[in-house]
Design brief:
The chain has three helices and 22 strands. By secondary structure, it is mainly beta. Strands 3, 5, 6, 8, 10 and 13 form a six-stranded mixed beta sheet that branches. A five-stranded antiparallel beta sheet has the order 1-2-4-9-7. Helix 1 packs antiparallel against helix 3. The longest helix has 29 residues. About 30% of the residues are buried.
Length: about 375
């Protein structure tokens, strides 16, 4: 009968148990609650603007909807323009430009289309020299250039001529006052760049028709940063995702996140929070959320849920959190131990020989060297 070296069968089991024990002892994490950083956002179109809403200004001049007759000139009664009309209609309104400085300012006035900045979803406007294809092209001001004396307010009537074939839904933009004076230059390589400042009063136009709210949560990904050896530092992850507005109305999204692990149960629970952005029709934005104390050893499934007025959507992703450096070291140790046992057993068989049976009975046969 073949005799194995003493302890050879126990050592692999002990090493495997040590591996499982080390991995199981890693911090799995609880269910932290992430609070996305609040960001300023315009009031929803369905909510009335406060009576004391501040004008859009940069400290030198301000642009806002002209207050109603008899109103306080220093307190706009509307923060933004909220207009609604049918295709082919003409809407009339008035914008006010106030010079808060002690010098005259020459302005260029124009209508601008709005869009979301791709990285953070901010409300941005097309520049004066860029093509305007939406409400920016439909705005016609009575004067597009004017000089405003110091500490003076000028009211400029304008119309919004909605094309007969305009698509129903929201068409966001602004009425912009651009200072035509180049304030300074900054060197960008070998090219001098002139700097001009502009302030715009937002204009939210809704063209009558069927409203189609529709968003999606795409490209959910997780970037993890964990210590090589668990226990010598914390881990953090960043959840990246893309919100896409496929509909024709502006969405004010609220986001909730849930993470479930095979070992740790619920490892992440983020209640629905306002993202602080207006997701405009046809726009998409790439956002992220920090996840402190992310699991270091688990199989995690994430679900991101977005909700808004008459709209909801979700996106998902999964990832394997494993301290690969530690696992690699343990596997090398196990492999080295098994190789050592195999070599030791081979040497013992070579020098010990084995028992065999022949016709004369049981004899000892020496193995060849």
């Amino acid at each position: 009968m073949f005799h194995r070296p003493h302890g050879a069968s126990r050592l692999p089991r002990l090493l495997a148990a040590a591996l499982l024990s080390a991995l199981g002892a890693l911090t799995l994490g609880t269910a932290p609650v992430l609070a996305p950083a609040p960001a300023s956002a315009p009031a929803p179109a369905s909510a009335p603007a406060p009576a004391s809403a501040p004008a859009a200004d940069n400290g030198t001049w301000a642009v806002f909807p002209t207050p109603a007759a008899g109103g306080n000139a220093g307190t706009p009664d509307r923060q933004y323009f909220y207009l609604e009309a049918a295709p082919g209609a003409v809407v009339n309104d008035t914008v006010s430009v106030v010079n808060l400085s002690g010098r005259p300012i020459n302005f260029r006035l124009y209508g601008a289309d709005a869009y979301n900045t791709p990285r953070d979803g901010g409300f941005a406007l097309r520049a004066a020299d860029q093509p305007q294809t939406g409400v920016g092209a439909w705005v016609h001001l009575k004067a597009d250039r004017l000089t405003v004396p110091p500490h003076t307010r000028v009211d400029i009537p304008f119309t919004v001529d909605i094309p007969a074939g305009a698509e129903p839904g929201d068409h966001p933009g602004a009425v912009v006052a651009l200072d035509t004076t180049t304030e300074a230059t900054s060197a960008a390589g070998k090219v001098a760049v002139g700097i001009q400042r502009a302030v715009g009063a937002r204009l939210y136009l809704r063209v009558s028709g069927v409203a189609v709210p529709d968003v999606s949560v795409d490209n959910v990904q997780v970037d993890r940063h964990a210590p090589l050896v668990p226990g010598i530092g914390g881990s953090i992850a960043t959840i990246h995702y893309t919100l896409v507005n496929h509909g024709n109305v502006t969405v004010h999204p609220r986001l909730s996140i849930k993470g479930s692990g095979w070992i740790g149960g619920t490892v992440l629970a983020v209640p629905a929070r306002d993202l602080g952005i207006d997701l405009l029709p046809g726009q998409q934005v790439q956002l992220s959320a920090a996840w402190p104390h992310a699991p270091q050893f688990d199989r995690v499934s994430l679900k991101l849920s977005v909700s808004g007025t008459d709209v909801s959507a979700s996106g998902s992703s999964s990832f394997l959190a494993v301290p690969w450096f530690l696992v690699g070291v343990l596997l090398l140790l196990v492999s080295a131990a098994l190789l050592l046992l195999w070599a030791r057993a081979k040497r013992r068989r070579a020098h010990r020989g084995h028992w065999a049976w022949n016709r004369r009975g049981r004899t000892r046969v020496e193995a060849a060297a």
